[in-house]
């Protein structure tokens, strides 16, 4: 795959264990410190109810837009390394509590579907906790096979989600 230096990618950040806002700040700084990644925009922080398993603390969510020279797979590896460095242990439980969750949502000009990575992320359209912060940084972004961010946001229930000042 040819990767264009300066390709845009969108990454969702979430946490509901420990000092969640600080976790997101540190993860953003760690990604920005990598030579192949530059953070160009960050959404506001949102407090959102848990999704999937609801008997857990609320999440803090955000989205960052990055310019990257890394391929999608190498960027995914960086996200997983950043999660591990924060203390995240992937134990196979989906939608449970976590100190840090980083999801590659969209990588400019790339569609991919393999055992490691699906791009764009297949469940963006269903998740207010992703669409709200994504609309802060890229409201007119068209997500292949799903639609434009602002249009998708109109069709989800954002009840219980609030901006953290």
TrEMBL record:
This is 2-amino-4-hydroxy-6-hydroxymethyldihydropteridine pyrophosphokinase. Coiled coil: none annotated. Keywords: ATP-binding, Folate biosynthesis, Kinase, Nucleotide-binding, Transferase. It comes from Luteibacter rhizovicinus. Residues 94-105 form the 7,8-dihydro-6-hydroxymethylpterin-pyrophosphokinase domain. InterPro entries: Hppk, Hppk_sf. Pfam families: HPPK (PF01288). GO terms for molecular function: 2-amino-4-hydroxy-6-hydroxymethyldihydropteridine diphosphokinase activity; ATP binding; kinase activity.
């Amino acid at each position: 795959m040819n990767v264009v230096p300066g390709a845009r990618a969108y990454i969702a950040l979430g946490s509901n264990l420990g000092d969640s806002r600080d976790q997101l700040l540190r993860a953003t700084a760690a990604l920005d410190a990598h030579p192949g990644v530059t953070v160009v925009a960050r959404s506001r922080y949102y407090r959102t109810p848990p999704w999937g398993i609801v008997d857990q603390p609320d999440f803090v969510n955000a989205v960052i837009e990055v310019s990257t020279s890394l391929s999608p797979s190498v960027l995914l590896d960086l996200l997983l390394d950043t999660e591990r460095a924060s203390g995240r242990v992937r134990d196979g439980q989906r939608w449970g509590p976590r100190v840090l969750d980083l999801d590659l949502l969209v990588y400019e000009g790339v569609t991919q579907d393999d055992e490691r990575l699906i791009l764009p992320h297949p469940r963006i359209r269903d998740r207010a906790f992703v669409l709200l912060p994504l609309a802060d940084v890229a409201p007119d972004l068209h997500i292949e096979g799903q639609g434009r961010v602002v249009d998708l946001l109109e069709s989800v229930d954002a009840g219980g989600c609030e901006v953290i000042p």
